[in-house]
Amino acid sequence: MTLATQLLAWYYKNGRDLPWRRDKDAYKIWVSEIMLQQTRVEAVRDYYTRWLDRFPTPAALAQASEQEVLTYWQGLGYYSRARHLLAGVREVCAEYGGRVPDNPALIQRLPGVGEYTAGAIASIAYNQVAPAVDGNVLRIFSRLFCLEEDIAKTATKRAVERLVMQHISRQCPGDFNQALMDLGAMICIPRRPRCPLCPLADLCEAYRREVQDMLPVRAPKKAPQLVTLAAGVVQRAGKFLVQQRPATGLLAGMWEFPATEMGAGDVAAAQLREKFRCELQQTVEIEEKILQCRHTFSHRQWDIAFYRCQWLAGDKLREQACWLGKTELGTVPWAGPHHKMALALAERLPNK
DNA sequence: TACCCGTGGCA
DNA sequence: TTGCCAAGGGT
């Protein structure tokens, strides 16, 4: 019995029934792989269904606006994934007649598609023999072969790619790669792996040495930077003043209530008044705090306070800002914690 | 290479 | 509550 034989036998009996495994349409596999980057299966399910309902084909997605696409991605995180997917699909429509190429090297040229995703699409949709080395595969092979190198290093990934190519099923490379995902999610999990249930236990060097809990080796991550913010909620004639974030950087292109970063000793009311006066040419008075929340990103933590503001005077708004009626609050993609604020406002103010 | 880029579940 | 971390890619 080879590694692939044992793994596939286990997979065909125990593999998960997932929405994106219903057919091998390359576009659908592509969408699922992008959504699943650094994101749990349970978080993806509903987004995937809604996405394919609205954008069932590359052509349907290619014609959509970036703002609508971002609205469908809102809450999933890593929003450049959505922008890249849109750009990639437009490229496929323009360059490949709407059909995703089957060559891993060509797939990888698409924006947002790296080595892992290219290998996954090629192997699952087109049955190409290609490795798809993600966090699961790094963990599994670190344990199988007792690799003690940091899995964040490129050299470690290359070594695992070579090992995958030595063991991948030539008949069913896509199933082999997906079986590794399921093994990593169900058996060879990060903490306290369930080795007695593992179909590869008899091949696993870490299990033999009883060091499976020590692997894989991963360099410690940097602590997130703490940021304190004050945001102003201004209402005038039933509409709210909102602002679009810059096209690059954190939460790029998403919408928020105008906010300022607070330095040590800053007073929220003064900072906010300045923000509205200088950047938006609006005169406001800060009233009471209406919501405070903490929002943690992968590398940053926001402590944000929302203040209700009284509008006094102001000029016409520039392009990156606008007045949004309460029925329009659900039509723009919100930046992180601002979504909670927008929802609260929409709920608090019934349509009259 | 190291850093940037979100979110939610879980121990 | 806090820290860890999950089907990565771009720069």
From TrEMBL:
InterPro entries: A/G_AdeGlyc_MutY (IPR005760), DNA_glycosylase (IPR011257), Endonuclease-III-like_CS2 (IPR004036), Endonuclease3_FeS-loop_motif (IPR003651), Endouclease-III_FeS-bd_BS (IPR004035), HhH-GPD_domain (IPR003265), HhH_base_excis_C (IPR023170), HhH_motif (IPR000445)
Gene3D superfamilies, alphabetized: Helix-hairpin-Helix base-excision DNA repair enzymes (C-terminal), Hypothetical protein, domain 2, Nucleoside Triphosphate Pyrophosphohydrolase
Keyword Ribonucleoprotein among UniProt keywords: no
PROSITE patterns, alphabetized: ENDONUCLEASE_III_1 (PS00764), ENDONUCLEASE_III_2 (PS01155)
EC number: 3.2.2.31
Superkingdom classification of source: Bacteria
The UniProt record lists the keyword Signal: no
Gene Ontology terms: biological process: base-excision repair; mismatch repair
Catalytic activity: Hydrolyzes free adenine bases from 7,8-dihydro-8-oxoguanine:adenine mismatched double-stranded DNA, leaving an apurinic site
Pfam families: HHH, HhH-GPD, NUDIX_4
Cofactor binding note: Binds 1 [4Fe-4S] cluster.
Cofactor: [4Fe-4S] cluster
Domain HhH-GPD: 35-186
Function: Adenine glycosylase active on G-A mispairs. MutY also corrects error-prone DNA synthesis past GO lesions which are due to the oxidatively damaged form of guanine: 7,8-dihydro-8-oxoguanine (8-oxo-dGTP).
PANTHER family (UniProt xref): ADENINE DNA GLYCOSYLASE (PTHR42944)
Family, similarity comment: Belongs to the Nth/MutY family.
Protein name per its UniProtKB record: Adenine DNA glycosylase
